[in-house]
Amino acid sequence: MTHDSVFVYSEDLLNYKFGKNHPFNQIRLKLTLDLLKNVNAIDDCHIIPPRQAADEELHMIHDPDYVNAVKLAGRGQLPEESCENYGLGTEDTPVFPNMHEASSLLVGGTLAAVDAVMSGRAKHALHLGGGLHHGFRGKASGFCIYNDSSVAIKYMQEKYKARILYVDTDAHHGDGVQWSFYDDPDVCTLSIHETGRYLFPGTGNVNERGQGKGYGFSFNIPVDAFTEDDSWLHAYRTAFREVAEFFKPDVILTQNGADAHYLDPLTHLSSTIKIYRE
Ligand SMILES: [Zn+2]
Asked: How far is the CA of 170 from the centre of ligand 1 (A)?
């Protein structure tokens, strides 16, 4: 049966948990699903489960050494000095039990989403547990262990031979995904974010445009702190339309981290729920 949209969810996604006082809390997935059910916006038939990403799928983006380090860390077997090399055990990305299993389930959730769309089962798929755009080839960063978006893009390239447009509207620059495909002309990345002048990760300047064959396929729209809805939407509509017309993708993967909202304590943008509706 073909659906207009599917929603990736299982309670196991809540196991990606850095600790009680960490700002990244997957409880938001459960709260969102509860809300959608309460307003009759979703039925059980729209929900598909995530799956565990295989090691070979993670290796399309991540160093096998790094994947191994995450496995060891999750079992409490990675020495502290090695943790540091891999960006693990920091204040942002602390070690937690079974972190490999929890992280590869998030990646597999995004793979389930892209399979639903690429196989024609649904026109749209939403995985709120994904979007871990700061994950690097061999290093965790900014709450992100494995980069589900980068793995999913590589997966769609190999399995479906697709040209992919990645659009990132999180308040932070989509650095991990940008660097994964910086020299690839078959993946176009567009990130709209608060300027890196005062905000993590500090990159995402307009002059980051790709390199080698990929030059001209990386777009960055940094906006100033305190940017409000109208300016933000103007930048979003214009850039999205022009980049999509230029690149003509087969499929669009978006990362819509909701931290451009004015109530978000970690960033300085002044958007409201209006931009997320759009
Ligand atoms: Zn963010």
From this structure: 5
| Bridge partner list, 219 | 190
| Average pLDDT along the chain, 278 residues, taken 10 residues at a time | 87 95 94 96 96 98 98 96 94 96 98 98 96 98 97 98 98 98 98 97 98 98 98 98 98 97 96 95
Tell me how far the alpha carbon of residue 114 lies from the centroid of ligand 1, in angstroms. 22
Residue 107: CB partners within 8 Å, gap ≥ 6?
Answer: 53, 57, 58, 130, 146, 148, 151, 152
Contact between 224 and 164 (Cβ < 8 Å): no
pLDDT 10s digits, 133-144? 999 999 999 999
Residues with CB under 5 A from ligand 1 (ion): 170, 172, 257, 259
**Tens of pLDDT, residues 223-248:** 999 999 999 999 999 999 999 999 99
**Is the Cβ–Cβ distance between 15 and 134 less than 8 Å?**
no
Q: Which is the catalytic residue, given 62, 100, 134, 193?
A: 134
